[in-house]
Design brief:
alpha+beta; Rossmann fold; four-stranded mixed sheet; two-stranded antiparallel ribbon; Alpha/beta hydrolase fold-3 domain-containing protein; AB_hydrolase_fold; signal
């Protein structure tokens, strides 16, 4: 969902909430109930690698990238953006320009999700390309260093470095 707040364009991604109760609320549709009953119990899901297991986390991200590649390609084909890998203030980013982009001096900075451990800017093009298309803005997707190669401070510093380079004061 795209919305504006105090002149700032925000992209709000809906969050799924899973219920693992024996009875589901009567206020939801049968379709939703059926879907929720197929969701796995989080206690039975496979465990993640150790915090310092770089190889393990790389394997998770590689599997995610392979799974997301067809969706990313479909979004690129549908919206036909211009995508450029760049370095801004020593931080890798992907610049996304919507089809027919006209420079209005505004830029949206996108920091992908993933709990500091998963995804990268390339994997999440399927999220930021539609935002660029809907808003008409240049989107800079920060390809920050995920854990365990970096930590929350590394990520914060990298995102701030991009903001500073884009808006020197």
């Amino acid at each position: 969902m795209i919305c504006k707040w105090k002149g700032v364009v925000l992209a709000v991604m809906p969050t799924l909430v899973f219920a693992y109760e024996s009875s589901l609320p009567e206020t939801i549709s049968d379709q939703a109930k059926n879907h929720m009953q197929t969701m796995p119990d989080p206690l039975t899901l496979k465990t993640y690698p150790a915090a310092d297991d770089v190889t393990g986390w790389d394997a998770i991200n590689q599997a995610l990238e392979e799974r997301l590649r067809p969706n990313n390609q479909a979004v690129i084909k549908r919206f036909e953006p211009t995508i450029t890998n760049k370095i801004i203030n020593s931080v890798p980013v992907i610049e996304v320009l919507p089809k027919g982009w006209k420079d209005n001096g505004k830029v949206m900075v996108y920091a992908h999700g993933g709990a500091y451990t998963r995804y990268n800017a390339q994997m999440t093009l399927l999220r930021c390309i539609p935002v660029a298309n809907e808003t008409g803005l240049k989107v800079i997707s920060v390809d920050y260093t995920t854990a365990p190669k970096g930590n929350y401070q590394t990520i914060t510093d990298e995102v701030i470095a991009v903001f500073k380079a884009l808006n020197p004061a």
